[in-house]
Write a structure and sequence with these properties.
10 strands, 13% helix, globular
């Protein structure tokens, strides 16, 4: 089951734009919610149910999903749209680095070099394309986007063995806080979800 309290393991506000820090924070830690804000204003991301581990091929869980509050013509369109896997393929997630012949970075959905969501190892740019994996549109305002902020939250700590038995469910099914967090992401990345809690909440917007 999902944790009652999610743990933020990475934030560009606090950790800087560093692929190495990002990689160490998210690798083999468990189910993650990834939130990205592009410089054009779009906020979008993905839930990755399976542990992220370095592999040269696709792997992961059909419980993954992607989401966006952006459209191709309007940033922050007002509603979080969630896209679950369709069964068209098993291109659920990809995480690789230190290779010369394969893409280096983090991706989910779509095809190699044409991901539903991709964050490059340079940690400066990414891209989003339409994807049959999720039947999702372009998630970002700009297809090739510049990264402004990235956050990663552990939704469920890694469980190499499912000691509870029975089928797992996605974060949206097991934890209603997932919906609340996505709604918060829709407001602005300059909010309590991307910064440490402060004594007062009157500075949530900048």
């Amino acid at each position: 089951t999902s944790q009652k309290s999610w743990e933020r393991v990475y934030s560009t506000f606090h950790n800087g734009k560093s692929w190495s820090s990002f990689q160490v924070a998210i690798e083999l830690c468990g189910a993650l919610l990834l939130v990205v804000k592009e410089k054009r204003g779009g906020v979008f991301g993905a839930y990755l149910d399976a542990d992220l581990e370095k592999k040269p091929s696709w792997y992961g869980s059909s419980l993954n999903f992607v989401f966006t509050s952006a459209s191709a013509t309007e940033a922050n369109s007002g509603n979080i749209r969630v896209f679950r896997t369709t069964g068209f393929n098993d291109h659920y997630q990809y995480f690789n680095y230190g290779t010369k012949t394969l893409p280096n970075g983090l991706g989910t959905g779509g095809q190699m070099e044409h991901f539903a969501l991709w964050i490059g190892k340079d940690f400066v740019t990414g891209h989003s394309n339409t994807s049959a994996t999720y039947d999702s549109p372009q998630l970002s305002v700009k297809q090739e986007f510049e990264i402004e902020h990235v956050e990663a939250w552990i939704v469920r700590r890694s469980e190499r063995e499912d000691v509870h038995g029975g089928p797992k469910r996605s974060a949206l099914d097991t934890n209603p806080d997932a919906v609340a967090l996505l709604e918060m992401a829709n407001r602005t990345m300059y909010s309590k979800m991307v910064r440490e809690p402060e004594p007062r909440d009157d500075n949530s917007d900048t």
